[in-house]
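Recall from the previous lesson that a structure prediction takes nothing but the amino acid sequence as input. Here we apply that procedure to Winged helix-turn helix from Anoxybacillus pushchinoensis. The sequence below is the only information supplied.
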Amino acid sequence: MKRLKITNDHGWTPRTLRKQERKIKDASLRVRVTAVRLVMEGFLGKDVAKMVNLCRQSVALYVARFNEGGLDHLLDRR
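The prediction returns the following tokens.
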């Protein structure tokens, strides 16, 4: 299994993502940001999935969406 990697941080750091997490009211959207932040901090996808109670594939999807379009794309419900 390949390690998940943030290929384009779009100017976000783990610290700024944590601040953004606190502002998000919707719990499911907050979990997405948390998952991306944990991957950015170096955790494995499977470990992140356990921490935030998601499946590994969801974490991979959220990382891919963040890499593709940044936080706006990650938080888009489509």
